[in-house]
Amino acid sequence: MEGDRRAEAGSSSASRTLRDVLGSPTESGDDALVHERNAELDEEEVEGEEDEEVGADGFVPGPLIPLKEQLEKDKDDESLRRWKEKLLGCLEGELNGQMEPEVTFHSIGIVSEGCAETITPLPVADNQSCVLFILKEGSQYRLKLTFSVKHNIVSGLTYSNTVWKKGLQVDQRKGMLGTFAPQRGPYEHLLEEETTPSGSLARGIYLAKLKFEDDDKRCHLELDYYFEIKKR
User: Fold this and answer.
1) H helical segments located in the chain
2) Running DSSP on this structure, what letter comes out for residue 6?
3) Distance in angstroms (rounded) separating the CA atoms of residues 91 and 80
4) How far apart, in whole angstroms, are the C-alpha atoms of residue 107 and residue 119?
5) Would you report the helix, strand and coil content of the chain in percent, each value rounded to 5?
6) In whole angstroms, what is the distance from residue 104 CA to residue 221 CA?
7) Res 84: pLDDT
8) pLDDT of residue 174
9) Residue 145: what are its φ and ψ, rounded to 5°?
């Protein structure tokens, strides 16, 4: 069912049209340690270490076209009309001509072997523990995201996830989520599987920054969060 609800990932194109889219942990004593280690993190050093933006290759996306306008095109093409109705027919009455897509992230979760799935609603509540999830050393895990898309197609949605420990960058992952059309229900997406490091030096609390951008370099989410690696 998840695959039916997800628009397929596609390569960047010169225009945005429908043809491009086929197809809580509780408070704990760990918080004091988080704040102490966060004080050690030099923001200027962190910002200097971040890599160049994804897709900084000179590509310039074509102009956005309101989805309502796209739906009104090719009305004489019966097969294309049926395809559009199947894809977006239930939303046609809700489109208001807004050109820019609106992507709202509802939750971030962790799926890991031998552990119960942990889901944290977004934005993170003020009284939420700073450590969003705990992982065992040497274990496989995947971040799980729930988000919705409104108003227009979001093209080339990418993510970057950068991790620091004691002020030093220890990992950075970048990837493509894909191109998504508006729909009433939310999308669910699992990021690529990762493996936590092992050993006494790997244990402890980490700071991470998760960022999502589209082809036009719109930032739809920038989230700072903490997680902890414990002994297996």
Assistant:
1) 2-5, 30-40, 43-49, 67-72, 78-88
2) S
3) 17
4) 7
5) 20, 35, 40
6) 8
7) 63
8) 95
9) -120, 145
Residue 55 is encoded by which pair of tokens? 């897709």
For the stretch 99-118, pLDDT in tens is: 788 899 999 999 997 788 99
- Whose CA is closest to 154, among 9, 4, 52, 54? 9
CA distance 205 to 34: 7
Beta carbons within 8 Å of 12's beta carbon, 6+ residues apart: 55, 59, 61, 155, 156, 215
Q: What tokens appear for 44 in the block?
A: 């200027």
Residue-range domains of the chain with CATH: 2-230 (2.70.50.30)
What confidence score (pLDDT) does residue 56 get? Answer: 47
Assign 55 to helix, strand or coil. coil
